[in-house]
Request: fold
Amino acid sequence: MSEFLKRVDLIFGEYSDQKYKTLEKTVKRPTEDIIKDVLDSGLRGRGGAGFPTAMKWKFAMEQPGDEKYVICNADEGEPGTFKDREILTKVPRKVFAGMAICGKVIGAKKGYMYLRGEYRYLLPDLLKEIEEYEKTAKGLGIDFSIEIRMGSGAYICGEESALFESMEGKRGEPRNKPPYPTIAGYLSKPTVINNVETFVNVLMICRIGPVKYKKLGTLDSRGSKVFSVSGDTPKAGIYELELGMALEKFVEEFGDGDTKAVQVGGASGFCVPRKKFKDTIIGFEGVPTGGSMMIFNSSRSMYNVLHNYLDFFEEESCGQCTPCRVGCQQLRIGIEAVKRGDKPINYLEQLMKLSETMKITAKCGLGQSVANSFSSIVNNFKEEMIY
Amino acid sequence: MTANNNLIKELVNQYGRDRTSLMPILQGVVEQNNYISDVDMTEIAKELDLSAAQVFGTATFYAFLDTVPRGRFVIRVCKTITCDMHGKKLIIQTLEDMLKIKVGETTQDKKFSLLETNCLGWCHKGPSMLINHDVYSELTPEKVQKIIAEYIHK
Amino acid sequence: MTKEINLKIDGIDVSVDDGTTILNAATKANIHIPTLCYHEDLCVAGNCRVCVVEQKGSKNLIASCAMPVSEGMEIFTNTGKVRLARKHIIELLLSEHNADCTKCYKNGNCELQMHASEMLTGEPMFIDLAHTRKYTIDKYNMAIIKDDSRCIRCQRCVRTCEELQSVSALDVAYRGNHMKISTFFEHPLFEVVCTNCGQCVNRCPTGALIERNYVDQVWDAIYDPTKHVVVQTAPAVRVALGEALGMPAGKIVTGKMVAALKRLGFDSVLDTDFTADLTIIEEGHELLSRLKRVLVDKDPTVALPMATSCSPGWIKFIEHTFPEYLPNLSTCKSPQQMFGALAKTYYAQKRNLDPKNIVSISIMPCTAKKFEANRREMRSSGYNDVDYVLTTRELGIMIRQAGLDFESLPDEHCDSIMGSSTGAAVIFGTTGGVMEAALRTAYEIVTGREVPFEGINVTPVRGTEGEVREASILINKTLPEWNFLEGVELKCVVANGLAYAKKVMQSVKDGTGNYHFIEIMACPGGCLGGGGQPIPTNREIRSKRKAAIYEEDMGMPIRKSHENPEVAEIYKDFLGTPLGHKSHELLHTHYTPRKRY
Reply:
């Protein structure tokens, strides 16, 4: 591996020799110290949006009442992302320990993992680990239990408020925000919802301390990140790397020598063309990603790529808000019409404006992020849209 | 009382009558019957004191909560970009040829349903598919033939 | 005390209570923000996104209906960014909307059309999706037509059906591009738990949910020289019809309405109020008879509490939801159906008409009445007792079609017979009104004295929206034949809106609600907020209509049903005694248990 890409072994590193050792040590510490460590670490959520984890926990902690929830978002559905599945396969204990720490910090007694239906096959092993966890927790006097709830094939349920709705037995339609989950989440109670990887990061911060953790990554993007690498690459798979790398280095390492574009952050992320590899930083200071890195070589039609994404959004939109429900359909049939010649080339400009409207008016992140791939693909590969 | 009524009663007893139980109950019915019928939905609505339309509305939101009869083995082939790039079409063709059905259909013997689905999270090993809960990745036509041949005898 | 929040909207300083939305704060500052999914009566959905505004310092626009104000916020409602976004959103809605406006019942009264016209949508910006899809049009229901091709998926109907009515006959189904408003398994409305209350129709911003209209059939009847067309109008119509014809809410237009009906060419303009009074006589006696059979005869077959039966939405609701309580419903037909049965019997006799040549029309604030008139049991005259039911809105259409300048019409009086009315009948149009009217009469029957309330205004039973109102009336110094009621505290409960009706029935079921007499009206506020009333209807408008109703009551020379001279006459000439043989034949009915599922 190139010297610019540092492999890290934090997330997937081995369990401590004693079961739930870090958890045991951490729950004995004062809550303020734990929060402080998480804050000092600079950890930002690993689901894609990158909200500072410590802030989220602090807000929930400050809420009165003792009915609070910790939810682990394992509804990994972003095209090109499969890192949570790998984490849940290899180190589920770290996830549950991270959740328990969160429970201790915010004062919650109940945690849920919302696992996507596509990962149903993981359920037996996860339940076994939960049994282990419960045993340990009982021994340590930790009053925090964990339950798994299954999704049933709806990408939108990865949106936190849609996930709550789904857990409440409803259609997974995102809610208006505010109120935010830390005030009114699951069952309208204060809730911390974090990505699978985020919980593991918290645990590792508690294990190695914020100082050591902070040495990884850059100022804006602390720590390591689990990347899901797929597409035209001889090295498809899961890689834990430091954040803040240049895309150029990434392509050097993972490309097949003919890379023309990389989709960073999945269908809802950005498509970076070859000419911009050099100036693109992977991280919150540049192009953020929940981990999805899809590589396309010059044999691929970017029109087909975009069309595939739009098909995806059209189906996975919950359908409640106008810009997303109708916008996704218009973008898809719009590029088809331009391709066929039924609409003039400048109709693409109209569609770009529409995607911008979707970005600023859609009710949730799904509709807002369609414009990311749409505009980055149309802008950079316009001729492929037309001919 | 029909067998399904018993199943729903059991699920309700296991998960409770609160609306938060709706998903696990619907999932439990699909697990058993491969789909949720109108009769099942009204039974669930009754137990949870919901309207039938509410149960229908919720069920139809989720791709895996089928509301039309499906076969014993539901095949869901990933159609998202990287699986598509790596030969998903050929996999579909192979399955269609073997099962003599098109995408969206169920075999006459009610054994197989063939569907497409969005990203399964196996992008590095595409093409991939689910058969019920089980994942099959890095598919080739030959591999598919072998897999299906095994299921045919199940 | 709530905190005051200060913000700026379009440069104007606004102070509002903490928790106020930007939309409401803007309204306070007289700044109009367009909305579609928003409705005062319903919880905030925030899904159409038409009401987006720009906030200083924020990249994304925000939905003003869903965003609470915060201190120091600076909002702009009319920037280029906002304008383009709104136009895009309206264009998107139009692209999936069957915008053949001239063929639409809501043409001219459609919120989407209004926005489109304001935004000067010319050539469509986007590709037409509406005509490339298959849509369902459910036109098999007597009362309500559901046309999915005109639906903009704002979910007002879904929220109405769930929040106000606790019925949820409609819900959102499927998702993404297939998302639609659907009944259970997309069954037609007549096969599901829909009560035909029409509250969804009243709130639908487009033509997706409309009443089945019978305007042309009524015109045909009027134009047919062989037909004698009688028309009755419900009490709540006369305090709302003006709105449908450009007048402000809360105007009493009884006289103008009668004048208009006469000019439209109806042969006889009569009054549902008359049979409302008759209902009170029958229902009052029914209540007293049930009380006697329970308290004196200890008859276990008699059901108490007794519940009113005037509201057909409520009837269908209880048939579906609490069929075990059907014996508790008063067997009295609703005033509309009493009128219908008498129009083709008593009236026909008196006027020497062949009932087969009578066409009986009713003007109702209600869509469920259309269903009620079509019930199989509503043919006790040997014909359809009521032939066509029009909503207040449809009458408004007819008046406009006829070119009448409604406001300048003189006040005229109903014809006789079956045209006289009392204050008691007028208040049938509001929640608590049937109860009050019944008490005015029943108390007097039992004690020989007027109800012991100032100006006979039985204010404790005057229901309000958003609550279940309980009251009890002590009966003392009874007349000798009613002495079994001496000292009895008559326990009454009044509810409006089916969500509250459900609460009442559940309390009866679990034993926490201990009542003698229950009044339910299916719609918020009672009939004055009925599904057939002018659009818009909201809390403010309902309260104005309510005030008008009580004003009309106060202004009536006779305010007790049993003092209606025509009522006395009909018993003398035709019916005999209350609950007598003829009454049973014509004025009482039975109910059908239905499945909730």
In short: Helices of chain B lie at 3-15, 22-33, 38-48, 52-59, 81-85, 88-99, 141-152. The first strand of chain B starts at residue 73 and ends at 78. The domain at 73-152 of chain B is CATH 3.40.30.10 (Glutaredoxin).
